[in-house]
Amino acid sequence: MSRYDLSASQNGGMGHLPRAPFLADRTILIVDDEPLVANVLAQELLDLGCAEAIEANGGVEALAALRDRPEVSVLLCDVRMPDLDGPEVVRRAVALRPDLKVVFVTGYAGGLDTGGWPVLDKPVDTRRLALALERALRR
């Protein structure tokens, strides 16, 4: 059960999500080869109260960012990208940083081995994003 209340009653029914306290000290790395998608996700994360959202344009850039930015604790990773696909990025990232938490995002369905990490369909719903992050962080 989620400790994050996503009901509209928590915020007066105005449709805006409350901040997610479990993100307050988190730096999240967004990996997507579509800059617009990465930018939208970054804004959603900041709106939820994430301390910092970093964008990487593909897997190679993401792995470099993980080496340079030890404060990154969560990887929000697209599945299909031209340089490295999401599962390969995650495999390498977790080898570098075993404590890293992961949420996959995808515009494609089916046949994905996520290793038990949450998967979100694009376009990403902010409420589902918050729940998936909470689930990943508890793992």
Description:
The chain is of the alpha/beta class and 139 residues long. It has a single domain, classed as Rossmann fold (3-Layer(aba) Sandwich), CATH 3.40.50.2300. The protein is 35% helix and 19% strand. The chain has four helices and five strands; from the N terminus they run βαβαβαββα. The chain has helices at residues 35-48, 59-68, 86-96, 126-138, and strands spanning 27-31, 52-56, 72-78, 101-106, 119-121. Strands 2-1-3-4-5 form a five-stranded parallel sheet, with helices on both faces. Helix 3 links the parallel strand 3 (72-78) and strand 4 (101-106). The protein is globular, with a radius of gyration of 14 Å. The two termini are 13 Å apart. The relative contact order is 0.18. The model is unreliable at 1-14 (pLDDT under 50).
The rough form would be described as globular
Whole-number radius of gyration?
14 Å
Strand order of the largest sheet: 2-1-3-4-5
Decide which structural class fits the backbone.
alpha/beta
Uncertain spans:
1-14
CATH architecture heading:
3-Layer(aba) Sandwich
What is the helix/strand order?
Answer: EHEHEHEEH
Mean pLDDT over the full residue set: 88
Question: Can you tell me the CATH topology?
Answer: Rossmann fold
CATH superfamily: Response regulator
Strand content is 15-25%
Measured distance between first and last alpha carbons: 13 Å
What is the highest CATH level, the class?
Answer: Alpha Beta
Count of discrete domains: 1
Q: Helix tally?
A: 4
Q: What are the defining features of this structure?
A:
alpha/beta, globular, 139 residues, disordered N terminus, 19% strand, 5 strands, Rossmann fold, 4 helices
